[in-house]
UniProtKB/TrEMBL annotation, chain A:
InterPro entries: DCTN6, Trimer_LpxA-like_sf. This is Dynactin subunit 6. GO terms for biological process: mitotic spindle organization. GO terms for cellular component: dynactin complex; kinetochore. It is found in: Chromosome, Centromere, Kinetochore; Cytoplasm, Cytoskeleton. Keywords: Cytoplasm, Cytoskeleton, Kinetochore. The lineage of its organism: Eukaryota, Metazoa, Chordata, Craniata, Vertebrata. The keyword GTP-binding does not apply. The keyword Oxidoreductase does not apply. Belongs to the dynactin subunits 5/6 family. Dynactin subunit 6 subfamily. It comes from Gasterosteus aculeatus aculeatus (three-spined stickleback). PANTHER family: DYNACTIN 6, DYNACTIN SUBUNIT 6. GO terms for molecular function: dynein complex binding. Part of the dynactin complex that activates the molecular motor dynein for ultra-processive transport along microtubules. Its main location: nucleus.
Automatic annotation (TrEMBL), chain B:
This is Dynactin subunit 4. Subunit of dynactin, a multiprotein complex part of a tripartite complex with dynein and a adapter, such as BICDL1, BICD2 or HOOK3. The dynactin complex is built around ACTR1A/ACTB filament and consists of an actin-related filament composed of a shoulder domain, a pointed end and a barbed end. Its length is defined by its flexible shoulder domain. The soulder is composed of 2 DCTN1 subunits, 4 DCTN2 and 2 DCTN3. The 4 DCNT2 (via N-terminus) bind the ACTR1A filament and act as molecular rulers to determine the length. The pointed end is important for binding dynein-dynactin cargo adapters. PANTHER family: DYNACTIN P62 SUBUNIT, DYNACTIN SUBUNIT 4. It comes from the Eukaryota. Keywords: Acetylation, Coiled coil, Cytoplasm, Cytoskeleton, Isopeptide bond, Phosphoprotein, Ubl conjugation. Signal peptide: none annotated. Pfam families: Dynactin_p62. Belongs to the dynactin subunit 4 family.
Length: 184, 446
């Protein structure tokens, strides 16, 4: 059995003030701001490349409705793809997130939602339906109106480069741990 | 303060044409009558038009010409937010050397809220940052213009007939005066009395200024009535069976915001120029002077029995509170008795520099600790006693009168009686104002 630990790939920038618990894998070029929380309670979390997780964002693979089941439930892995943006204060429990999605500030994505790619969940929108959100969907407004946009949101390459340069100047970073143990 | 949280807790009585009770944040104060005024006691006049996003002011005539829309700003047709212009770099062949490509800037409109872009409806990116965007032409423009011309001519003719009748009755009056008098009637169909010519390529729609000049001979314009069709285009066969793709259908609101086209498909939704808002000026009906906005005298924020008074003027204000008399006609809402401090309360003046002045001397007011809870620069907190009259009261309300002195610094200078050069302005006199105040304190604790 392996000890659940946080595996941070080389090239990722993860600030020490962020809280990461459980079996979490973070891919290269991902930036995790201070005060972000990634909690793998009911299963592991795998985060891909080029993601941007801002302050006070909460990515949690938790038990549904916070009830710890007494019998052993098979742990489900939460997968997050590439180039996603989790803006300040958002909460994401979606088990499967594709690429190039944007979850805006204070949005709340439930566990049974599956984001494909290019989806934008607008600020303060709460999406806790049981569905697969089609590609390039924008959910916005107080009534969670939807529309389809013609082009997917651009990956935040400029912002990521800037942060990877600047954040180490002001914060200590968590040490990178390779997923596979190599004797070097 | 009162305007953001719990606005209806403290209301003031305004004695206008109707008796209105409103919170202080919604009231105005007329300096000349020295009375409180509410929105219903003042007359609103349109001051000017402005665009809410670029804040461009324009005179009413120009606004009318542009159909009350801003020339530079656009609204998102999807969520009615303001559109912003974004730039991208596009490789484009240089005009001199077609083999090389250089980065040129291309601009498109995008909405920050719903992520709509001008590329969604097929509008090509423009090479200029502003002024390149055209509103689509209304296909019915010509017909509408012709109808307007016809009706303007009709109105002109009616006006002339009316003038002629009036002149026949009273011959000694000047005919010009009557034309002036009936100008409001002409405006019924007119879009202005200036002659406007359509400028080619004008970004504003072509339904602008058609006019008639006084006394100009117009040829008779005839219009054909709209033709009635016998056969109407039938609905498509799969109208009932075809599955609807909701993202492609426009909502009613989106559709009706563009009455010219009313597009049913989302790919036809073009942005419109932003609607202008009006700046109102308020005029006190009694004295016909323009009001200043919201010059509050005491403003109150209350907790259970602790009330605060804030003094916004720079001189010392004296405040006396008095309970309402038993047979006060204004006292209709109170459900509890109130015991107010009998002594006069003194409020220090507002000193904007006080917070920066570290060596400020502490204010030396002899405060009765039973009455005054705290004092801080120009604020004072004091106690009143509330005695509920009913056993179970869902909303305890008390009312009392507050009387304070007010020095009108902006009153017009009265001319000196001696005449002569440079009379010193008479010192502004203090007057005493009394207001009727009601406080809603909320439910009684069980």
């Amino acid at each position: 059995c392996h000890f659940p630990s946080v595996k941070i790939a080389a090239g990722a920038v993860v600030c020490v003030e962020s809280e990461i618990r459980g079996d979490v894998t973070i891919g290269p070029r991902t930036v995790v701001h201070p005060k972000a929380r990634i909690i793998a309670e009911a299963g592991p979390i795998v985060i891909g490349e080029g993601n941007l997780i801002e302050e006070q964002a909460l990515i949690i693979n938790g038990y549904p409705e916070n009830i710890t089941p007494e019998s052993e439930v098979e742990p489900k892995t939460m997968t997050i793809g590439m180039n996603n943006v989790f803006e300040v204060g958002c909460v994401s429990q979606a088990l499967k997130i594709g690429d190039n999605n944007v979850i805006e500030s204070k949005a709340d994505v439930g566990r049974n939602v599956i984001l494909t790619s290019g989806c934008i969940i607008g600020a303060f929108c709460q999406v806790n339906t049981c569905e697969v959100i089609p590609e390039n969907t924008v959910i916005y407004g107080s009534g969670c109106m939807r529309r389809v946009q013609t082009e997917r949101p651009q990956p935040q390459t400029l912002q990521l480069d800037f942060l990877m340069k600047i954040l180490p100047n002001y914060h200590h970073l968590k040490k990178t741990v390779k997923a596979s143990h190599n004797a070097s | 303060m009162a305007s953001l949280l719990q606005p209806d807790r403290v209301v003031y009585l305004v004695r206008g044409e109707k008796k209105i009770r409103a919170p202080l944040s919604q009231l105005y104060f007329c300096r000349y009558c020295s009375e409180l005024r509410s929105l219903e006691c003042v007359s609103h006049e349109v001051d000017s038009h402005y665009c809410p996003s670029c804040l461009e002011n324009m005179p009413s005539a120009e606004a009318k010409l542009k159909k009350n829309r801003c020339a530079n700003c656009f609204d998102c047709p999807c969520c009615m937010h303001t559109l912003s212009t974004r730039a991208t770099n596009i490789p484009a062949p240089l005009p001199d050397d077609p083999t090389k490509t250089a980065m040129k800037k291309a601009y498109y409109l995008a909405c920050g809220f719903c992520r709509w872009t001008s590329r969604d409806v097929g509008m090509a990116d423009k090479s200029v940052a502003s002024g390149g965007w055209q509103e689509p032409e209304n296909p019915h423009t010509q017909r509408i213009n012709k109808l307007i011309e016809y009706y303007q001519q009709l109105a002109h003719r009616e006006k002339q007939d009316r003038d002629r009748k009036k002149m026949a009755r009273r011959r000694q009056c000047m005919p010009l005066a009557f034309s002036q008098h009936t100008i409001h009637v002409v405006e019924k169909y007119g879009l202005g009395t200036r002659l406007q010519r359509q400028r080619p390529g004008a970004p504003i729609s072509s339904l602008s200024g058609l006019s008639l000049k006084e006394g100009e001979e117009q040829k008779d314009i005839t219009i054909e009535p709209a033709p009635a069709l016998d056969e109407v285009e039938p609905l498509p066969e799969d109208c009932y069976s075809r599955p609807i793709s909701l993202p492609e259908v426009t909502t009613l609101r989106q559709r009706l915001l563009q009455p010219d086209f009313q597009p049913a498909g989302a790919s036809q939704l073009h942005p419109r120029h932003k609607h202008l808002l009006m700046k109102r000026s308020l005029r006190c009906r009694k004295c016909e002077h323009n009001l200043i906005f919201a010059h509050p005298i005491p403003s109150k924020r209350e907790s259970q029995v602790l009330l605060t008074l804030t003094n916004p003027v720079e001189n010392i204000t004296h405040v006396t509170l008095a309970p309402c008399e038993d047979d006060d006609p204004d006292d209709i809402n109170s459900t509890a008795k109130v015991v107010v401090p009998g002594k006069q309360l003194v409020l220090a003046g507002k000193d904007a520099a006080a917070e920066y002045d570290e060596l400020a001397e502490p204010q030396d007011f002899q405060d009765d600790p039973d009455v005054v809870a705290f004092r801080k620069s120009n604020k004072i907190g004091f106690f009143i006693k509330v005695i509920p009259q009913k056993e179970e009261d869902a909303d305890v309300t008390v009312s009392f009168k507050i009387r304070h002195d007010f020095r009108n610094l902006a009153a017009p200078v009265r001319p000196s009686e001696e005449g002569g050069a440079a009379a010193a302005p008479a010192p502004a006199e203090s007057i005493w104002l009394t207001h009727h105040v009601e406080l809603r304190l909320g439910p009684l604790a069980p």
